[in-house]
Design goal:
With about 375 residues, the protein is of the alpha/beta class. The chain is about 45% helix and about 10% strand. Helix 1 runs antiparallel to helix 15, helix 4 (about 90-100) packs parallel to helix 15 and helix 14 (about 315-320) crosses helix 15. The structure holds ligand FNR.
């Protein structure tokens, strides 16, 4: 394929290179995937105002998210197992994000550890926390994030129990892959991926290996992890984490106005309007459709960010126009990683940057800070 021009091009390339169980893991949503599809489709229902004959020179996408300078209001979302799209994937993505001047968020469930990322980056990155039942483990994770000089903690609130993803169950997803006839066939058809993976020892959950109690090998590690998501997680836990951490805090996975107000009451710096990329409650509304309500509910008390369904820079611009101070991309960077490694993540970010810039100009704006509802022609939400 010639040089990828769109996120869809990167997705096609990743599908060809990454074994089915790991491509599907990145690409799939929960159950019927209706929320996953709505996340993408609802962006196209918002129409932009075309403006002409205004000065479009010297444009700027530079902005701030929770007080941090960003070259554009886009961060890499935390994604578990990114290191199974490409060996050492989280380290590659973190470097690409740093070079692009955007935040990288490391997932608790990453293959590379907090320390791995710190060893290859020079600027602070963000750490995403799943609050697990073993609170001692959470305290240690927070301390490790502090030592690594992470500049924000992103607490995920929408995964007290794991949503069911049919493709993962059918594919027998596990990391590292279990040797069955099915997985052997999947791996045999992706030799470049296999060669790449043979060159790294990082194939388990890097933040958890050596820290979980009663865990001796990778398969008991997976069992431990699955049992550790905490169905009792509550707002008081969020306040406990906020005090323990003491730095910038973002609450991820808010889709309801009451929850948004409760999040603002904790004193957190931002919420991420998110349905986990359609991977948790299938049947929940799209993130973009809920954004205006969230901004109306708490936009004067904290920053409102958004993820879910962003596949172009134009989608980012629409989210910003509806009040998002920042956005996150998950699958778009994973497709880039699977397709072309670090260069693919850089390409995904460049594609989004270029599309955002052109869209902004054609809406008659030169600075992302001037983009608001004045660029919207029609918004059904
Ligand atoms: C995720 N997401 C996620 N979120 C989180 O807080 N911790 C995690 O470990 C993960 N893991 C994860 C893995 C994969 C493969 C995907 C696709 C997503 C959710 C993620 O942070 C984000 O909310 C969505 O990816 C946003 O939707 P898009 O951009 O993928 O459409």
């Amino acid at each position: 394929m010639s040089k990828p021009l769109t996120i869809a091009d990167l997705k096609k390339m990743a599908r060809r290179r990454v074994p089915k169980m790991f491509f599907d893991y990145a690409d799939s949503g929960a159950w019927t995937e209706s929320t996953y599809r709505a996340n993408e489709e609802d962006f196209s229902k918002i129409k932009l105002r075309q403006r002409v004959l205004v000065d479009m020179t010297n444009r700027s996408l530079a902005s701030q998210m929770i007080g941090h300078d960003v070259s554009m209001p886009v961060a890499l979302a935390p994604t578990g197992l990114a290191g199974m799209q490409r060996a050492d994937g989280e380290m590659l993505a973190a470097k690409a994000a740093e070079e692009a001047g955007v935040p990288f968020t490391l997932s608790t469930m990453s293959i590379c550890s907090i320390e791995d990322i710190a060893s290859v980056t020079t600027k602070p990155f963000w750490f995403q926390l799943y609050v697990m039942k073993d609170r001692g483990f959470i305290e240690r994770l927070i301390e490790r994030a502090r030592v690594a000089k992470c500049s924000a903690l992103v607490v995920t609130a929408d995964l007290q129990i794991l949503g069911q993803r049919h493709k993962d169950l059918r594919n027998g997803l596990s990391a590292p892959p279990k040797w069955t006839l099915n997985s052997a066939m999947q791996l045999a058809t992706k030799p470049f991926w296999c060669l790449d993976m043979l060159q790294t020892k990082r194939r388990g959950f890097g933040n958890i290996v050596g820290h979980a109690s009663n865990v001796s090998d990778l398969s008991s590690l997976s069992v431990w992890t699955a049992e550790q998501f905490d169905p009792r997680l509550s707002w008081s836990d969020i306040r406990w984490i906020k005090d323990l951490w003491g730095g910038k805090l973002i609450i991820k996975g808010i889709l309801d106005e009451e929850d948004a107000r409760a999040a603002a009451d904790t004193g957190a710096d931002a919420i991420i309007v998110s349905n986990h990329g359609g991977r948790q409650l299938d049947g929940a509304p799209s993130s973009i459709s809920m954004l205006p309500k969230m901004v109306a509910a708490v936009g004067d008390r904290m920053e409102v960010h958004l993820d879910g369904g962003i596949r172009s820079g134009q989608d980012v611009l629409k989210a910003v126009a509806l009040g998002a101070k920042g956005t996150y991309i998950g699958r778009p960077f994973l497709y880039g990683l699977g397709a072309m490694g670090k260069e693919g993540v850089t390409t995904a970010l460049e594609i989004i940057r270029k599309e955002m810039d052109i869209t902004m100009a054609l809406c008659g704006k030169r600075d992302i800070k001037d983009v608001n509802s004045n660029v919207i022609a029609h918004n059904p939400f």
